[in-house]
Amino acid sequence: MNGIPEPTNDHERAIAEAIDNxxxxxxxxxxxxxxxxxxxxxxxxxxxxxxxxxxxxHGKLTHSVKKQPARGIVPDDLKRSG
Length: 82
Prior knowledge:
59% of the residues lie in helices and 0% in strands. The protein has helices at 10-25, 30-40, 47-67.
């Protein structure tokens, strides 16, 4: 799967909005965000809804990781001494 899936119905739009709000409002681990979303949506989630939820969260997290600069050990000759 490449990228973040686009919501195609009302349930998926509600799930995406809830995920986006939770990701912006907290730095909780994604597992707790997923659990909160499942408990907070005002409808019973179908298998397709659940699949969308996991794919959407995975896409969001993968996308945000790719946008962040890589971290690593700086070689000694590149370190600045203060």
